[in-house]
Amino acid sequence: MLTERDIREQTDKGITYIKGFKLYENGSVLYIDTEGGEKDGSCCVSGTVEGSYGNEYDVSIALDENEEIEGYSCTCPAFETYPGMCKHCVALALEYLYSGEDAQGEEVFEDSPLEFREDRTDTELMDIVAAFSLRRRMKELTACGRIEIIPELQEISRYYYGNERNFMLTFKIGPEDGKQYVLKNISDFLGHVYREEMHSYGKQLAFVHSKNVFTETAWKYIELMEQAEKAARARYENLGKEMALTPELWDRFFEINQERSMEYASLTGHKGKLYFLKQDPPVRCRLCPEGEKGFQIKIPPLQLIRGKDRRYVKLQQNVYQCSDNFYAGAGEFLKLADEKKETSYHIARQDMPAFCGAVLPELDRLGISDKGNLDLGEFQPKDAEISFYLDEENGRVTLKTMGTYGDTAYNLLEPADFSGEYRDRTKEIRVQNMIRSYFSLEDIREELLYFESGDHDRMYHLLNTGISQFEAEGTVYATDRIKGRKLLKNPRIQVGVSIKSGLLELSVQSREFPPEELAGILESYRKKKKYHLLKSGSYIGLEENSLSTAAELLDGLGVSGKDFEGGTLNVPKFRACYVDQMLRQKDGQLQAERSSDYKALIRDMKNVEDSDYQEPENLRGVLREYQKFGF
């Protein structure tokens, strides 16, 4: 027999029943029809219900022979969105319940007799009662503790997401200090949260899933679930009871649980607490002798876990978030570990220099090695001795670079095999990068680098900084042809100044180059070149030295190379102050020789500076400052 309670239990939210009852009370059921099954006694109730805004919806309800609800449908949008009966289904069911007998295609009028209906409280007041009841329940939840989500981490044996061992999360939900229930379906739970629905998990837990009822930590887990569900939807999947911790989720999961603990179930079924610590793991890798054969390196049981951006180590009952420095240094080595037992690896005596040179320093630097009282002096690797061989032949400047370890030498252009005898990989790579910055071409057959002899920019670069850098890394061996290529970085320049025939006579001389080269040097300076190539094949640098200072002096006088034939130059006497000023500013960079008559001229000019002569009144506003000087 259909009852009001049966109808109420078909709704997902208590407020839906109240809204449906209000429609029924207001006479919103416009049409009702009942069709019965002749054999089994079941029936189908169909009708038309007017919504709150005047829309009409087609509604149907299926009843079995005992008048228990088997199904229902409605054309309203809410029916497709929310579970349970909508308010229009409730209104039609109540109309059928209180019509007294089966309706056969009858229209329902607002003035239909309602004497058979039991006395009921006004709908508006019932809405208030429902709202206050809900508020009271929310206060009860707050009184016993806000809603918490408690995770449990489980290890599984499936291989995916890049970790050899994967992890699953399951959750319980409930008040912090009350009874907690297993969360049976994560996707359904997120639906309740999204719609802020009332949902019951058991006799002692039912609440509206609004954000304010959850603790701060619980809400972080909800955000983690949403991230997992988004990824699941992309695979056309739903989340059930379990949620896999992918690398993308691990970083966020660790952030939530940093400096906290949680329940953990291992692959073997062992349960306990797991702690999450943001620090490098205190791993100790022991190096032990193994008779006359060699040595053993022993790695404790641990598990590497890959996150999206960070790496983690599970060691005993702790999960450590590794720093980038730690994982870069020890990550590859720790991949040799087994998560269940200590792992031992044999090192032959002949390979100990390679191990002591490449691996052990990194383990020592990170503080994860334990050598005990071992004396490893005899296994310390020999330093790499680098040799540079420079030559010039057949129009090429060539370089062959060798690295020597004891009695064994390697060409640094050979494909490096670092798996055998120890080689200082860091130093070799540094040297390779350095020499390639000076030599642009490679002769693979002869295993050397080179550039064309006519490439003066590279030759100057090599002479200026290259050879000195090579000498800082090793020993340089150069042929006579290379030694003949000289760079005059700071040639000694003598500047003479005198007065001859009423003009200033300047002479510029140097022992490093003949006077006729000065015109070309001056032209190179004006083109802002870094160097000038002499006819002898040597190079003169033009960057912040005495020659650049002399070129600056001549350039300021506005002279050309043709004016400087024979190494002397005549300029008007009024340029004497400029020349004197330049020589004083560049004192120490140029060796200046001033004649006595030139010195007397400069003294006279300075005396004029201190004179009391005044410019004429009619010219005072016309003359510029330098014209007033000495008037």
Give the CA-based shape: elongated
Head-to-tail CA distance between termini: 129 Å
Which regions have little confidence, pLDDT < 50, spanning 5+ residues?
Answer: 101-106, 109-118, 160-164
Number of domains: 5
**How large is the radius of gyration?**
47 Å
Oligomeric status of the shown chains?
A: single chain
Average the pLDDT over all residues and give the rounded result. 83
Largest sheet descriptor: 9 strands, mixed
Class by alpha and beta content: alpha+beta
Helical fraction: 25-40%
Count of alpha/pi helices: 19
The number of distinct β-strands equals 33
Quote the beta fraction.
Answer: 25-35%
Give a concise summary:
The chain has 631 residues and is of the alpha+beta class. It is 32% helix and 28% strand.
